[in-house]
Amino acid sequence: MLKKHIYFICAFFILTLAVIPVLTRAETLHNIDSQARNELWLNTGFYSYHFQRDQGLDDHNWGVGLEYRYSSVNSVTAGRFHNSDLQMSDYVAWFWQPYAWGPLRLGGLLGAIDGYPKATNGAWFPMLLPVASLEYQRVGINLTIIPSFQDRLHGSISIQFKFKLYE
Questions:
Q1: Which of 52, 59, 84, 42 is nearest to 7 (CA)?
Q2: CA–CA separation, 81 vs 64, rounded Å?
Q3: Which partner for 161 in 1, 4, 44, 132 could form a disulfide, CB atoms 3.0-4.6 Å apart?
Q4: Are 164 and 142 a contacting pair, CB within 8 Å?
């Protein structure tokens, strides 16, 4: 059981080591000035720690995607991954992260996703989620909280690793 959650434990540990020292320097939440960017990131799927631990959901949601950051506060993303219901999901989204707290970018995403048979019989449906991102040189993570919705969508804390291809 511990082996199944090793990625979540490692990611949480790395995030804690990276963020806590910076945030304890009396950093305050502030707006990020919007500036043009030209960055392309390769995104992995997700590791999802599900709130409903007794339902046999797949926490290892492997996949691939691209994220294009066209400004310091905006990016677009698209990808495909193996979801928690053992189906393939496609997603498209727009990230808006106008706030920072130390190295963390904070905001949300607006997009659409498919592949969840209990949600809409696998068809596309909209998503609006909070997102925090931590980036350092050529590596980063996106962290989001997905709420549970009845028995149709299983809530989780999800981590996505990313690697900068160019800027």
A1: 59
A2: 6
A3: 44
A4: no
pLDDT tens column, 83-133: 888 899 999 999 999 999 888 999 999 999 999 988 888 899 999 999 999
H or E element, residue 164: strand 156-166
* Domain-wise residue ranges, the chain: 3-166
Give the global pTM: 0.82
Q: What is the pLDDT of residue 2?
A: 47
Rounded CA-CA distance 130/139 in Å is 20
Phi, psi of 113 (to 5 degrees): -145, 155
Q: Which two tokens stand for residue 58?
A: 């797949």
Q: What is 3-166's CATH number?
A: 2.40.160.20
